[in-house]
């Protein structure tokens, strides 16, 4: 089984890190194909970046997982796709482009959190990201069970050796546990994909990363033979 993991931003080091985290949890025989569009913002921080990333993101998914995929150098046999940005950009459009399952990391993470905790907090990077994630919490039906918090960490600081990003995210997790009554933590950025295990050990609560959660969901959907519905809103786009 091959799973396509698309980082919608153009920072290759983050894509590589996301790919490593995904491969670590993948089942034996599952190959992770981690890619990013070359012409998107270096990080997705807010509504403008999210909008700017969409053409490249959707073109990449169509190339690797769309119904016409399979040309030279293109892997048309992917079992499903993970959109590795916590804003879940373009999720509905991506589901219309392919019959293979498409899972966003925010949706994956919060649904996993509801299975292991009553209340949880989402710790994201900057305050600019909080409203978008709050909207997603409403969409996914978990707004009454979680609080969204920002650690005041620019996304690209997670890629900088020697930055204090990990410490600041950890400090925000500590505040969430103390102030929110959180029973679990969701990491609200795909760039934190390598931190979940360390924070779980440090704080003694479930800490959920959306990238790895999404990989396991795609594996499960593929194993069950479930594909994306092609009636209604997720029908393939009409020729124009």
TrEMBL record:
Residues passing through the membrane, by range: none
Superkingdom per UniProt: Bacteria
Pfam name, any one: Asp_Glu_race
Coiled coil, from the record: none
InterPro entries noted in UniProt: Asp/Glu/hydantoin_racemase, Hydantoin_racemase-like, Iso_Racemase_Enz_sf
Family, similarity comment: Belongs to the HyuE racemase family.
Matching PANTHER family: PROTEIN DCG1
Official protein name in the record: Aspartate/glutamate racemase family protein
Species name: Azospirillum oleiclasticum
């Amino acid at each position: 089984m091959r799973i396509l993991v698309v980082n919608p931003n153009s920072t290759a080091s983050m894509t590589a890190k996301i790919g490593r985290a995904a491969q670590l949890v993948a089942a034996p025989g599952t190959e992770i194909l981690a890619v990013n569009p070359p012409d998107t913002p270096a990080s997705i921080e807010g509504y403008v970046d999210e909008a700017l990333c969409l053409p490249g993101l959707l073109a990449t998914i169509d190339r690797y997982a769309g119904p016409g995929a399979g040309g030279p150098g293109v892997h048309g046999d992917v079992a499903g796709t993970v959109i590795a940005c916590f804003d879940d950009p373009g999720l509905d459009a991506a589901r219309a482009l392919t019959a293979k399952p498409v899972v966003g990391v925010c949706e994956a993470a919060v649904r996993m959190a509801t299975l292991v905790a009553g209340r949880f907090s989402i710790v994201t990077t900057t305050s600019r990201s909080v409203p978008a994630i709050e909207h997603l919490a409403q969409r996914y039906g978990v707004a009454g069970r979680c609080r969204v918090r920002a650690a005041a960490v620019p996304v690209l600081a997670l890629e900088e050796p020697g930055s204090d990003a990990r410490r600041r995210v950890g400090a925000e997790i500590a505040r969430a546990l103390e102030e929110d009554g959180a029973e679990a933590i969701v990491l609200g950025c795909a760039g934190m994909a390598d931190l979940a295990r360390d924070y779980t050990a440090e704080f003694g609560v479930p800490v959920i990363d959306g990238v790895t959660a999404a990989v396991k969901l795609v594996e499960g959907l593929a194993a069950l033979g479930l594909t994306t519905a092609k009636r209604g809103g997720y029908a393939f786009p009409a020729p124009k």
